[in-house]
Amino acid sequence: MQADVVFVGAGLANGLIAYRLRQLRPDLTILLFEAEPAIGGEHTWSFHDGDVPDNAMRWLAPFVAHRWTAQEVRFPGFKRLLSTGYRSITAERFRAVLTEALGDAIVTSAPVAHIASDAVWLRDGRIVQAEAVIDARGGTGGPHLRLAFQKFVGLEIRTAAPHGRSAPLIMDATVDQTDGYRFVYVLPLAPDRLLVEDTYYSDEAALDAEAVRARIRRYAKDKGWEPSAVVREESGVLPLILAGDIDSFLGAWPAGVARVGLAGGLCHPVTGYALPDAVRVAELIVNLPHLEGRAVARAVADFARARWHDQRFLRLLARMLFVAAAPEQRWRVLQRFYALPEPLIERFYAGHPSVGDKIRILSGRSPVPIARALSVLREQPLLGARLDT
Q1: pLDDT tens digits, one per residue of 257-307
Q2: Does residue 33 share a domain with residue 14?
Q3: Could you tell me if 215 and 328 lie in one domain?
Q4: 8 Å CB contact between 132 and 290
Q5: Quick one: which of 382, 257, 386, 241 has its CA closest to 307?
């Protein structure tokens, strides 16, 4: 088998790159290999209107299954309705759009055994020669990054009666705090359908899915949303990058193979959102003059280094949340943040806080003990001599 570009893993990041290549460079032969029977898994990828530039939003629009014009947050001492728009891509819509665009270029139930810059070896013995190989398997990890975790279980439920919600509730932190910062996330998908996710900002990756399912059912019942059926379930453990050695992390990649998505450490350090960077990488790759393996890998690595530099302040905030704040008090950090001006919140989610935003976020009464906050500002985590915090 032979192709110009071979994608290993058909999740969000690789799916968007392949889709954009098919749109703008239809002369290229591409193949997407997915180990599972279907692409996209069971996921909902959400983002704020300002997270994606308008030019990219035009080609991303077919993937968007749900749109809202506002979003709500709730904390023990504060609640707010924000006018920022919010959008979601469902796995179902993702599969439909990609299948229509790519057809038999998608190969499912095809686990990969080994990769190189110019070839992919499938477990069934087939070998695929390629000009470039792009790998999106697995999450961020390894010895070169200091991580915390955002983990969740979500149940899409059909309610016995209309639930009455019109806007997403992106954080309800009025729930009992356990296993770090806990909040419930609610998306109204239809008048009688809700996605309810129980989410934890935790120091540990372990997730007791059965216990979380029970908490979701109790939460829905307390809100008067008596479920008549559970339509589907999704779960995940997302990395939140607190610090690390970016050069060592990138140096551990297979030579000449680009790694994208969470596998490439490309996500927001505080929220774990990966879609904005997935869109940026798709635009980067589709505009490269030559899609040769080592050139693509070099371009993606350069992008990752640039993002690492841009996100230094965001990693500092992540350490403030996970290191300076006691686990049961982390909600206070987010409560204070959501009282700030709405344009600042939008720039934070987009990953582009201004100098004024940074000063505003760190000024005023601290929601964490001052001594612990100062220790985070001074700390040098022991992850390597070339650590860039």
Answers
A1: 999 999 999 999 999 999 999 999 999 999 999 999 999 999 999 999 999
A2: yes
A3: no
A4: no
A5: 241
* DSSP H stretches of helix in the chain: 12-24, 54-60, 91-102, 209-222, 246-251, 275-286, 293-310, 312-319, 330-337, 342-350, 355-362, 370-378
84 falls within a domain: no
pLDDT in tens, 117-136: 999 999 999 999 999 999 99
CA dihedral defined by 279, 102, 236, 334, rounded to 10 degrees?
20
pLDDT category of residue 379 using cuts at 50, 70 and 90: low
For 338, what's the count of Cα atoms within 13 Å in the CB-facing half-sphere?
23
The gap from C-alpha 23 to its chain's centroid, in whole angstroms, comes to 24
Distance of CA 229 to the CA centre of its chain: 28
C-alpha distances out from residue 29 to 9, 18, 106, 117, 295, Å: 17, 10, 12, 16, 18
Do 165 and 108 share a structural domain? no
The answer to whether position 138 is within a domain reads yes
Does residue 187 sit within a domain? yes
* Residue 184, domain extent: 147-241
Per-residue tokens: 177: 């705090």
Rg (Cα) of the chain, in Å, rounded? 21
**Are 116 and 203 part of one and the same domain?**
no
Q: How far apart are CA 376 and CA 153, in angstroms?
A: 30
Say whether both 336 and 291 belong to one domain: no
Q: CATH number of the domain that 206 lies in?
A: 3.30.70
Cα separation, 143 vs 296, in Å, equals 25
Beta-bridge partner residues of 194: 157, 188
